[in-house]
Amino acid sequence: MAERIFTLDDLTGTRSVCGCLACNLSAVFADHLTALRTNYPGTVTTLGHRGASPGTTAVPHFLAVRLGDGLVDVVVWEEMRPHQLTAWLPDTEARARVPQLAARIPRLVRIRQALRAGTFTPSGAAGEALSTGDRYPSFRFLVEHWPTLKKEFTP
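Below the sequence we write its predicted C-alpha cells.
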C-alpha cells in the first residue's frame, strides 16, 4: 500500500506559519493512524520511541512530509496488540522481523530514500512491487521484503 505525501498544512488542517515538525503533530499522526486502523491502542510519537506497552509491539510507520520544496521522512510509532499485528501483517515470518527491523530505522530510511531516488531497485517480488511506480514504500513493504533488501542494498 503506497503512502501519501503530506504537507504540514494537510497534517494540521490549517495554513501554517511555522514549518516546525514538532508543532502539535503527535495528535495529527494519532488521528491519521486511527483513521487507518480501528481499535488504536495508544499514543503516537514522532521520530523516537518510548518502548511498547506490555502485550503490544511497537510498529514504526514512515511518512513523507513535504517541507517547502523538499521531502522529509518522518517516523511515527504505533502500538499493536497481537491480533492487530496479525491482521496488518499476516505472514508469520515477516511479523517475527518487526522488532528487529524497528531497531534499524536509520538503515530503513536510507533504503527508502534510495528507492525513492531511483538509485536502488531490488530484484524479485520486491522489485516487481515497486515497478508500479510506488517509490514510497511503507514499513510493511520493507518488513515483507527484508531478505531481498538486506542482501541487495549497499549504501
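The CA atoms of residues 19 and 68 lie 9 Å apart.
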